[in-house]
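> example.struct
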């Protein structure tokens, strides 16, 4: 198999990689912030927790479960009016970042909740016995104790957003996925499709390796 098309498309590859990194970077940042807050709220509103509220916990849990099961491509179409309102357009990497951020926030919220559930209840009770405020318990106890797992969760989030960004190319999101569809699939350039798969694989390996390394460094156990 010849790879004659790749040198000709190098500028397109560079642009596509930049667009993919933009989508993943922007959406991951927003997802970690919003999803992190949502996940903490979901956990702390649970039974026996510091802000226990059965109704709030049930509503949040239902919303998170619903949004996690929502097909991403359909979500992109549904939120197009919101995307145009925020970004001014429904095409391009920043437009795709809106739907990626929405999907990523709810996905990460559930991951955060699961990580906080692994924190020993005794540690929280000890902090409460010492008179620690709820804010202190959240940041100094819960998030601190769960930091190794949270890093792995962020790693999973990044990989999930990378995969979703490839799908975003199908409806004008740009990026590596869009390049693979336009040239690799529609124009039958097999070498381009192979290159796209290799690039995505490398990105996944790099993200996973970095996440594993940092998580191991932060693991107190």
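> example.seq
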């Amino acid at each position: 198999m010849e790879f004659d098309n790749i040198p000709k498309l190098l500028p397109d590859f560079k642009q596509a990689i930049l667009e993919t990194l933009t989508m993943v970077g922007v959406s991951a940042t927003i997802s970690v912030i919003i999803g992190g807050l949502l996940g903490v709220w979901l956990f702390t509103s649970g039974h026996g927790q510091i802000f226990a509220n059965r109704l709030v916990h049930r509503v949040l849990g239902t919303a998170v479960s619903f949004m996690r099961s929502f097909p991403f491509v359909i979500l992109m179409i549904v939120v197009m009016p919101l995307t145009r309102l925020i970004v001014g357009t429904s095409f391009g990497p920043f437009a795709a970042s809106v739907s990626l951020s929405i999907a990523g926030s709810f996905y990460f919220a559930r991951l955060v909740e699961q990580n906080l559930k692994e924190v020993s209840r005794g540690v929280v009770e000890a902090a409460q016995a010492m008179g620690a405020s709820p804010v202190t318990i959240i940041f100094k106890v819960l998030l601190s104790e769960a930091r190794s797992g949270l890093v792995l969760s962020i790693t999973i989030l990044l990989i999930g957003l990378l995969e979703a960004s490839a799908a975003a190319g199908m409806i004008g999101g740009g990026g590596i996925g869009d390049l693979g569809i336009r040239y690799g699939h529609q124009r039958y350039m097999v070498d381009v499709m192979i290159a796209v798969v290799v690039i995505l694989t490398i990105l996944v390996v790099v993200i996973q390796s970095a996440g594993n390394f940092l998580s191991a460094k932060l693991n107190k156990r």
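> remarks
The mean pLDDT is 91.
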